[in-house]
Task: structure prediction
Amino acid sequence: MEVTNRYITIKTHIDSAPKESHFELKTAALALSVAPGSNYVIVKNLYVSIDPYQVNRMKSYSSSHKATSFSVGICPGEAIDAHGAGRVVASGNPNFEKDDLVIGLLTWGEYSVLKEGKALNKLDPMGFPLTYHVGILGTSGLTAYGGFFEVCKPKKGEKVFVSAASGSVGNLVGQYAKLFGCYVVGCAGSKQKVELLKGKLGFDDAFNYKEETDLKSALKRYFPDGIDIYFDNVGAGMLEAAVANMNAFGRVAACGVISEYTGGLRAAPDMVDVVYKRITIQGFLVVDFMNVRADFLSRTSDHLRTGKMQAIEDIVAGVESIPSAFLGLFRGDNIGKRLVKIADE
Amino acid sequence: MEVTNRYITIKTHIDSAPKESHFELKTAALALSVAPGSNYVIVKNLYVSIDPYQVNRMKSYSSSHKATSFSVGICPGEAIDAHGAGRVVASGNPNFEKDDLVIGLLTWGEYSVLKEGKALNKLDPMGFPLTYHVGILGTSGLTAYGGFFEVCKPKKGEKVFVSAASGSVGNLVGQYAKLFGCYVVGCAGSKQKVELLKGKLGFDDAFNYKEETDLKSALKRYFPDGIDIYFDNVGAGMLEAAVANMNAFGRVAACGVISEYTGGLRAAPDMVDVVYKRITIQGFLVVDFMNVRADFLSRTSDHLRTGKMQAIEDIVAGVESIPSAFLGLFRGDNIGKRLVKIADE
Result:
């Protein structure tokens, strides 16, 4: 059987702010079978993850960050790999059979052709929606869990500040921190997001950073006794303001820098504060946390079953919506984990 | 017996670059005896330490850094406390007797009157010059030792970069790193300093940062395989360049920020590098390392006795020289540990 696979590519490398015109929906004929002796796995994509870090992979090598040597660049015209959940339609790989549900590195398209099965795993939904395995039980969840527990090393009662707190990772950091016994304040970019944080997600407090003219004073107001832990998803002025309001032996978990990804301002945290207050600023990636993945899955799925944690999802439909769903991340359109639903289960 | 004690004060708080005119040599009559029942200790100062961090204590409260709440501010007109070595001339404190050699928090003056003996210890010179106990075996040494071993957590063969590498702490970090088996490059601000690092101190390489127009390229040249550890004494552009050249899981020990102390530029390290390369930037103070002080003393004195470490000292004579000796730190005048000799032993 042969189908027409529709998938998203970039037309050129993107070194400025990304726009719709940088993207293209391509089509290619795809045989839903594998040649005898081949190790290929062909997956029908069901849900794919939409994450800001992809923009760093779209930059040209010359202008791109040295950091991209730690992730694989995206070539114009080629399929873009991204985490997702799908169903195997054909397999030459003994680890996978037709109709297996799988989770792993798929593509921003209707089908994924995986030459090796390395970044693919069979998925037991454990009674949860598939989308949970891309978000709260997937890389977003593990990023939040590892970043909070392994990097921030929290103690009960500590004061935690989370930026982009209604985002895919931020909302989970706040939930973990509350369950652990910390005082948690988040910031986000709209009234609706702030209400979600204070209401459904149980943050102790939250504010709309767009309504604040002086972030340093704002944080002083929300943390009169100082910040012990700052989970940073944005960088720039928010990082500076958090460092200025930090307590001795404070920790900054540097998870993301959305302010810098598309050429925005850099943070210039006061290093005198860093020295005198013995602040630690630590970068991390989700791949560093594979050693705690089993604990993460077991604890998080328990919390979901008992209703102690909430999955906040923002699901957009259709492969053709991927570029706009992606671009919306940089405008703060999403609330919670953004996914694109490619096909019905 | 009564003497005239000469000591240095600041006339006003110093919120700009410090100048000679900010300082004053004051005199006061001082009885070299303690009243019965008093706990006072009077010390004749022999050597006092001259350190850049003092400038942060001289700032006014309003304009001063929040960080100064972690160190005690200096009041205009009053004696300025500073580490040093001296000899007890009178004591009402049962822990000290006349003629005891002592080390601890003395003052920038000829005599120190200590109301409590808390920050004072009897000194056994262990066969070393007194000056060593203010420098290489004192706070400078422990800062270097703790900062390198406890904060940087080095592995043999790692590539280490040290800024202000001929300074009181930097030269010792480089020496510890070499003895430990690391590859060490230092930067300093003169040809003479660079020669000291490469010659007497055995650094693998060194360069004069004033001769470099692009610090990022310079570090790329000296570290073609990247930097694993950066021991930062300066901040600003050097910190940015080091982060740009850092390897995955690199560590920055933030020891001092001389570029910021007198109103210079702040560092804006690229946080995207920090995230992707999982860099840790950690501030620290010498007081954090009391748990390793015994090890530090034993290992460092062994290294000194066997000639494996060198004490680089820069000794200026006379209490009246303190302001110029201090101001010279910000021009990079000193080579190694700067002390002022107040009196003959």
